[in-house]
Design goal:
- With 130 residues, the protein is mainly alpha-helical.
- It has 7 helices and no strands.
- It is elongated and about 60 Å long.
Length: 130
């Protein structure tokens, strides 16, 4: 068996293992499977499973870990997608009253897409109006 075929088989193995574990509500084990899956992806795609991991941590009520993995996902995304993810992170920080972090991520969103539509909200946060 050539190396390419082995890599593909490992991708499939850990992807489906993660999905199965998620369905069985073995969420921490699913996270481990997705991390291993990520290691078998090309460098340009390794960020993708971090979105799923973020969702799992969100389900577990571990918002800080969820946000860490959501940012890992955003780093690998195209600018328009990254902008949306950073906006989502900012929104989540805002819901837990971490205004400074919300501002930081809204600024990252604007850096990635200047027309994302949060400039007014960002300005209101900076001036204490929100």
């Amino acid at each position: 068996m050539d190396n390419n075929q082995n890599v593909i088989q490992n991708r499939q193995k850990y992807f489906w293992l993660g999905k199965k574990l998620e369905e069985e509500n073995a969420l921490l084990e699913a996270i481990e499977a997705y991390i291993t899956y990520s290691e078998h992806l090309s460098e340009s795609d390794q960020h993708i499973p971090h979105q799923w991991i973020a969702d799992i941590y969100d389900k577990l009520g571990e918002l800080e870990k969820s946000l860490i993995y959501l940012e890992k996902y955003a780093i690998g995304c195209s600018s328009p997608v990254a902008a949306e993810v950073y906006k989502k992170i900012g929104d989540k920080y805002l819901t837990i009253s971490q205004t400074e972090k919300a501002i930081l991520y809204y600024e990252k969103a604007i850096e990635n897409n200047n027309s994302i539509g949060i400039k007014k909200k960002l300005e209101e946060l900076k001036t204490g109006l929100l």
